[in-house]
Amino acid sequence: MIRELAETATETRLDAFNRRLDQAMDRSGSLVCVGLDPHPDRLEEPMVDFCRRIIDATWEAAVAYKPNSAFFEAAGPSGMADLKTILAHRPPGRLMVLDAKRGDIGSTAKAYARAAFGVLGADAITASPYLGGDSLAPFLADPTRGAFLLCHTSNPGAGDLQHLDVGGRPLYLEVARLAAQAWNGADNLGLVVGATYPEALEAVRAMAPRLPFLVPGIGAQGGDLEASVRAGIDAAGRGMLISSSREIIFAGDPGEAARRLRDAIDTARSRAS
User: Fold this and answer.
1) Is pLDDT larger for residue 6 or for residue 218?
2) Is residue 184 part of a domain?
């Protein structure tokens, strides 16, 4: 069914990534991003078949997918071939965010960008901002492709570096300021902000009111969905890709799990408006 719809779907490839994302959220009515983390010890079928099955089961309730590059890289050349296949298994009007957290300088960053967008065909990639603006430029060179920068992550050790004082504000807010005011010239930049820290999510939204957020940490990591939505939605009531992986992909009925998350987000959005 996805293939049939894809043949008739049209995309405005000239639009900047953030506009494409906003349009996809509006048309799908969803903020759900399904994380594809195919832990090999939990699979009873080939990785590529597992991920395609999850996409086919959940696409009507999702707006994006986030395959985690590490699991595919660990499987060697066949895993990388699977990753390309899965990124191409894109439902109509949905987006693929490669979770690779790349960060390097010069020709190396260009090679990472070329691999993510030109070879693998991702719509966006996660990236580290800590080498500065020049290291991000290759990921932002094509306005139709996006990058989500690590800003305030969802893990327990996030505060080790991200809360360090930088001229009177924590480092994560300086990342948000630079992203919003200096690095987003092509309107294709977003931020990764974890749901496990709703106060930080609120502070980042105040600093970057127009940037889209990729929000991990709902589900297994214990993030508060309602608090996160209240803290992170933008003026249009969107602006967030709320990511869930294990709670959806290893559910007995992944499609139903994705629908439950979509409906819970909708309830939280209505209460926050």
Assistant:
1) 218
2) yes
User: How many C-beta neighbours within 10 Å does residue 217 have?
Assistant: 25
Residue 272, domain member (yes or no):
no
Tell me the C-alpha to C-alpha distance, in Å, between residue 145 and each of 30, 37, 184, 187, 234. 20, 22, 12, 10, 21
Q: What is the pLDDT of residue 9?
A: 37
State which residues form the domain around 134. 2-7+16-264
**Catalytic-labelled residue, pool 66, 84, 101, 110:** 101
DSSP 226-243: HHHHHHH--TTS--EEEE
Q: Pick the more confident residue, 185 or 219.
A: 185
Q: What is the pLDDT of residue 1?
A: 40
In a domain, 271, yes or no: no
The Cα–Cα gap between 246 and 224 comes to: 16
The domain that holds 38 is classified in CATH as 3.20.20.70
**What's the predicted TM-score (pTM) here?**
0.93
Is 269 part of a structural domain of the chain? no
Q: Please indicate whether residue 101 is annotated as part of the active site.
A: yes
| pLDDT tens digits, one per residue of 148-165 | 999 999 898 999 999 999
Domain count for the chain: 1
In tens, the pLDDT along 43-71 reads 999 999 999 999 999 999 999 999 999 99
